[in-house]
Amino acid sequence: MRNLLNYLSYFLTGFACLPTAYAQKVRPYEYKVELGTYYSINNKIPFWMRSNQFGVIPKTGNTVLFRQSVTSKKDTTGKFFKFGYGADMAVVVGNQAQFLLPEAYLKFDLGIFSVMGGRKKQVHGIVDSTLSSGSVTWSGNSLPMPEVQLAIPEYRKLIFKWLFIKGHYSHAWFMDQEYVKNYYLHQKALYGRIGKAGSKVKFYGGILHNVQWGGKPKYDIPAWDGRFKNGKLPSNWFTYKQVVLPFKALRDTTSGYTNFELENRFGNHVGQFDIGGEIRIRKTNLMLYKQTIFETGQTFSSLTNADDGLYGLSLTSLAEKTIFRRFVFEFLFTKNQGSYQAGLPRLLGLKDRQFGNDTYYFNHAQYLDGWSYNRMTIGTPFMIPDPEIRIEKRNTTMQFYSNNNRIRAFFIGMNAKLNSVDLEMRASLSRNFGTARKAMGPADQMSLLFTGYVPAAKLKGNIKVSVGIDQGDLINDNYGVNLSYQRIWK
Are 160 and 357 in contact (CB under 8 A)? Predict the structure, then answer.
């Protein structure tokens, strides 16, 4: 408790002087403070209240959260060299008291390029990032990892006046997880856009490629176990080349590697192909997008699971005075996983070399922590970790992160403004089928979140009120509330 009070005192004094530092000037930063409390009937925070919050919201209810953040404002000058920063710190007081640092980074812009180091809150992929259920492999659901990133962060013209690209190349650290320690993340992305920023019609496409690699397992390894050699996973420069360019790993010399790498890929490959488009009709912007999952490099050469992934529709009102501001509808489907050939390759008559090879989303035979960071899903939050599922639905015979990755889910998000009150709603209905190796149910699950932001003029901020509801067969029924005070200095 004493350490927690020390954290809190450092936290309060560390940023307390910021709002007054530029009292008579235009502030070069945005500073935000929040003090809130969470309560639920079963001591768990409801699903949508804590999902896609970058790991900040505690899992257990009946807690108090104090949070401060500061972010540099975007430099809109034409300078070649620019500097930016961000920091977000939270203290949780309750059954699981903790100090969290979901964001702390520095970045330097050199012309069109940006170099960033630290933890930074990011969502990758073509998606409505404000109200989406979550980009399928990188949604902002877990705490950000420490990373070094080289990027073209905004769309830049390439050769033709109607063609634009952006992308990044990153190295990050998973550090010490539950089953494996000291392993890395390789990540790269390349996205293109046809159409200028102000065009009425725009088309998008791109790829996001993530790889878990290196490290050492913390669990016991039998002598006959062919997944490892010398009790660790390969992490030299030869391995890194195989990670960056995930071709079939066939080489004359394989010293230090096992048949697992040669038969599959070096590391755990998780990624997505994205396509999308936008059209502006009068004072409404319509956006459509589709994200397709790939794992272990299989869909580089196959469209077996082309029907798996996230389908989205986003409507945004461009009118100044309107009640409904934004509406998002999404459909998540992950039941294929290589178990049958999707309709598109059948229609095109494509030869399918990977048919019948289950991809087993978000799980891996070497990295038993799966596609997670600190036991929170990195991708779509619908891939719920096994400990959060009802006891009678858990798979106690298989040691994997997600024993429910075959899902069909519908999601609606909506933002509105009634007089001076901002309103937000998130609702999902999912049917869950377990995994290809162990079926479940099916188990139906409904989760809701209603949030209102009420201006509090005397307090110079907003009062945030949220109500979350979970009911169904997958996770325990729950009702919870969040009451917070928020203030922003710009």
Answer: no
